[in-house]
Specification:
heterodimer, A: Rossmann fold, four-stranded antiparallel sheet, 6 helices, B: mainly alpha, 2 domains, globular, disordered N terminus, binds adenosine-5'-diphosphate, binds magnesium ion
Chain lengths: 230, 439
Amino acid sequence: MIKIEDIHKSYGLADNCNKVLKGISLTIKNGDFLVILGASGSGKSTLLHVMSGLEYPDQGKILYDGTDIAALNDAERTKFRKEKIAFIFQQYYLLPHLNVENNVKMGADLAKNQNYITAIEAVGLSEKRFRYPHELSGGEQQRVAIARALAKKPDVLFLDEPTGALDETTGRQVLDYISKLQKELNFTIIMVTHNANIADMAQSVIHMNSGTIVKLWQNDTKKTAYEIGW
Amino acid sequence: MEMERKSTQTTEYPKKESKTGKRTKPPLSPQNKNSKGKKQMIAGKILSIRDISRLFCIVVISFCAVFVCTLFLNYNTDLKSIGIQVMQSDVQNFYNAQVMTGKIVSILSGGCLLSTSAVMLCFYIGHYVDTHAKMLGILKAMGYPNLKIAKGFAGFGLCVFVGTAAGYAMAHSIMPLFYRTQNADGLLPEISIHFHPALSACLILLPTLAFCLLSVLYGYFRLKTPVLDLLKGEASKKIKIPKDKKSRNNIKKLRTIKNTAGLPFLQEQKKSILRQKKSLVFFIGFASFCYASMMQMSFGMEELASRMMALMIFLIGFTLSFVMLFLATTSTVKSNWKTLALMRAFGYSDKECSNSILSGYRLPAYVGFAIGTVYQYTLLKIAVTVIFAEIENVPEFHFDIPAFLITLVSFAALYQLILYIYARKIKQMSIREVMMGEE
Ligand SMILES: Nc1ncnc2c1ncn2[C@@H]1O[C@H](COP(=O)(O)OP(=O)(O)O)[C@@H](O)[C@H]1O
Ligand SMILES: [Mg+2]
């Protein structure tokens, strides 16, 4: 369980201090599918980075099963990230000089997962595992990023606009892979998006506006990636 | 920032074309109308102050080269003028030895340093073309011939002038001291300092011209890349993968037959880093070559020549190799900064990150070191047998084991220090900022 208590975060000093997160509190159950909605600049990415231990909050607690990661030092946080979480970004961020297999290995090695081929198969890319990122389409690259993240066997998967750079068809396909794999592996998903339709796939949804949660709701029925609007 | 620069440039190109080119294109924006398209236009636009400031190291190295050469060559020329006076005397040998050492030192350090700066210059131009690929691609797409664009690169070479001129001036300012130490025992008659215009032309103008030419030629060579490859930007171009399908298929076959898992990620990463930039491998090897040869030589020099010479070679060798090592590693780390950020985000430790990027260079570094050691030994051995052949009481020249050990240990420490510095830097990076940077 992830419990977030009164997170504050600002950038800049004194005069032109930009308060990005203004007291966010939230509880996320294990295996939840949480979508964070909000306009551009509302602080979604910042919240994601703070929750995942990439950034320190100015104030507040981030408790993973009781451990406050905001209080950990750098080495401990690195260890925490290594053991617990994985990321998928809008820009894929594959390593350009390595082929699909080695990109996936980057995640797999951290979890000492010898069976990374399964992860590549799971996203339907075993035929293309010796290709390099620039030889793949955007959707395929994002699927590699999914394989890489899941080969790491994370407890929590953080996604920042994973379909932001994709067209509708490939976007749906990518989301479908993610939700199917979640059912299979049962990790927690925390996904940032500004596409409100995607929220229909989620179990819990929060809506952010200028650094605060303005709305929070649960969906009774989850739609699949092909049932939602776009 | 980068984006801003590029966009202002693209809007300004038409000015030049409308003035000099036959095909006039309508200016893209109104402020282009009253511009003066001049030849330097491209040069001025292609090279920003920041790019030139990056050439600082080249300036420093060319400074050192000209500094040393001026001292020794000026001294040698003045020494020759008193040559007649010493012909008969028994200081002949001493005289000969000084002339020879002067020549060797200036050829060696001058040549070594200048070739280093030439390598660095090419490296910088290559880097420049890579990072400004889009903008250069647009220029090419608009129809500028390669040579015209490459001419703008002469500015890179011109900056060498600053170094050579300063080195020359500096050498002249400490020349009295140098003349005194060279003739400290008073064996030779008083040598007065003369100014040799031919020498100054050779040492200041010649390198500058040569470097300008080199810049233009190398730039021209690099610009031969097809326009589309340039326009696609550095990312797509820099990826070096096994080109022919055959070898890739072979890997595939091998792997499927054996069904081995291949190397772990960190090893693969190390390998791909080395593959990415072969010039850096050479560069780092060369830096360690310089370190090994110059440091050990300075120990030998103290015995064979003067302490001053030893100190000079020591300082030059150290600065040179340190600067080169540091530049090469900085460039590697910088060009992989995103990869590092991602690895950090996924939970690789700072040490794992810096090792995966930099420890692959260890082998080339030590190979360079070994070659440098052999090289300096051979050189000094020859020098001793040739120069001091007629002089009696010259100590037999042996391989200096303590000097070797000191050099080796200090080199290993230096390398480790660089790894450590980058591990620290990587630790302090803001992963978020790196990740957000591109959007
Ligand atoms: N490093 C930073 N320095 C200053 N301001 C920042 C920094 N990073 C983000 N911000 C600001 O924080 C606000 C929220 O950013 P972000 O979390 O990326 O929003 P979102 O992901 O919802 O679009 C923006 O107004 C942005 O300008
Ligand atoms: Mg965002």
